[in-house]
Amino acid sequence: MDPESGRKAIELAAEILRRGGLVVIPTETVYGIGADALNGQAVADIFRAKGRPQDNPLIVHIARLEDWDRLVRRVPQAARTLAERFWPGPLTVILEKSGLIPGEVSAGLSTVAVRMPAHPVALEIIRRSGSPVAAPSANLSGRPSPTSAAHCMADLQGRVDLVVDGGDCPVGVESTVVTLAGPRPRLLRPGGVTLEQLREALGDVEADPAVLGQADPAKPASSPGMKYRHYAPKAEVILVHGSFQAFSRYVGERGGDGVFALVFDDDGELEIPCLRYGGRMDHREQARRLFDALRRLDDRGARTVYARCPDPKGVGLAVFNRLIRAAAFREVRL
Ligand code: TXA
Ligand code: MG
Fold first, then answer.
1. pTM for the structure as a whole
2. Up-side HSE of residue 60: CA atoms within 13 Å toward CB?
């Protein structure tokens, strides 16, 4: 986009938000479908547009640190430390909410999730709208999160007032979600800011069992979003652990109509059609390409997808977390 039409799109987006409309906004993680976070009606429209379950709360996006203070009851020192280190950036922090947050945003919880995104277009739109912006990922509920404007159009055209194209999202998976509302800092969703980085900043951070897919189904989810089968392409995905050689043999015996492999750039050739999603050790590249790869598999008519398992270290933990959900916890160990 040239600078003049860029400015116009930002101004139009801000105006639509002020009027209570819905705007798809680029962020550094994934695209979000935004509404004025302080307007309960506008926020309710997000749930309708996405087909999102009513009990799944939204993240509130801010452009200035000062705005945080009025959205939550208190900003503790640990929260300030995280903001200083990681904002603007792919980190969402959960705290007890203030009276300003409409019930639609927090879906009945006493807490609210807040983040300051690192995308210049997102920041400018929020600033100009004059209000914090509630925004879940701009996909139809259950579909892979969108990392390009084309993904958003495919899911939401006709359901929102405007889609602002900011190019491909550089992080590619959603923000890291950490709660400071409990007795100890707890990682609820891994993302662009790693667990290792959080521990370096805060010392003690525990990972919710659901991060690695070990949640106890009998207990209520700490983060409602984690209980849904998520990021799912239409195909059945199976996550395969083990060496490339073993993988190659395994899928070679299972080829057929609609059967695909999802592998790393540096893996060898296979007997069945495959898509690649980054180098085996390049977790950031895997994160950038994963959701697009899942959507491409749908476009190619995949019915069964065998996916090479990423190493769950650093940002790889986020990649693993998304893939295991896309696979609805179907795993094979070779
Ligand atoms: O990167 C991102 O976070 C993107 C961009 C648009 O900012 N947004 C995003 O939003 O991924 P969404 O709605 O798709 O995911 C928000 C996650 C959900 O899993 C939700 O359950 C959780 O955050 N969440 C939100 N508020 C919460 C709260 N008060 N307590 C626990 N979990 C919360
Ligand atoms: Mg989402």
1. 0.95
2. 34
